[in-house]
Amino acid sequence: MSRRGQLVPWKSAGRITERETSADEVVQTTGWVFNNETGSSLTLEQFVATGDQEVPSYLTIFGLRSPDTETQSMIEIGCGIGRMTCAFTREFGSVIGSDLDAGFLERCHETVSRFGKVDRLETLHVADGRSLDMPPNSVDLAFSYITFQHCDPDDALELTSEAVRVTKPGGKVALNYRGRSRIDTVVLPIGQFVRTLFRIPGFGSWLARRRFFARLGWQANRLTPDEIIGPLSPLLKDVEVWRNPKSKITGYKASIKEFDGINKHHYWIVATPR
């Protein structure tokens, strides 16, 4: 696989996770990759607790719970070290945590063994950053949060298509994206420049571990709902675009739903595969 700049922060964090002796140390030293501040006071338990708060809210608001949830299966695309995965294993009978870095997946297993139900967990390495090595119609739910916005646009679209492919007809996909804003006219070109710096051997890995530059470099795409829904519309029904009440994001032939717990720059596509 080519050295794509937006993947360097994850690869750098993955190497660090392999060196640390515990997941607590991973959280303390790699907070820049998980949207957390670093610091010696951070614990894995606190990190997981944020996922414990968010998962039930999303499952309820998006209508993803049913009387059969505990017997159903799901895939989390971009599970990291398991912040939300623990809560998912308490809700679903079978959970597949997927990520592009194998080091994260090892730590995800450790995290779930401490705070979730590890007997319900499988992991899947997304080695190429764009495809899921699974048969079609494998899971009841495909879920992804704060992952696709950090992908190359083509990779984000391909992973979205893959999410639909592996979800059973009548199941659900709940996928998070970042919308466009005026500041992106500045942020996106800077992000592209930072990703170029990430490709410099040695220096790039060091720079990618600096939280400020990592977050800039992750600004890889701003896809509109129509760009996502359009190519997949024959495969989906009951398409909903969920947004913050202050957002103006819309989607062609999609029902618009609002939830103030959604970041005003983000939106979700929740839909049923045919």
UniProtKB/TrEMBL annotation:
It is an enzyme of class 2 (transferase). Gene3D superfamilies: Vaccinia Virus protein VP39. Keywords: Methyltransferase, Transferase. Transmembrane segments: none annotated. The keyword Transferase applies. One of its GO terms (molecular function) is S-adenosylmethionine-dependent methyltransferase activity. Residues 76-174 form the Methyltransferase type domain. Pfam families: Methyltransf_11. It comes from the Bacteria. InterPro entries: Methyltransf_11, SAM-dependent_MTases_sf. GO terms for biological process: methylation. Its EC number is 2.1.1.-. This is Putative methyltransferase. It comes from Ilumatobacter coccineus (strain NBRC 103263 / KCTC 29153 / YM16-304). The lineage of its organism: Bacteria, Bacillati, Actinomycetota, Acidimicrobiia, Acidimicrobiales.
